[in-house]
Design brief:
Blueprint: H1 2-37, H2 39-47
Helix pairs in contact: 1-2
Amino acid sequence: MNFIFRLKMCISNLKMDIPRLKMYISNLEMKLKAGVSAPSSLSLMLFG
């Protein structure tokens, strides 16, 4: 019983984290696209 409860809690936490993950991934994609169009800004982000 306790295990099932913990499993449900874990699944609900995952459901809450999925939109945050999607936002994080889309932000990364935007940064990558901006870096591809402007390599100097990407190198500044990485090494600055």
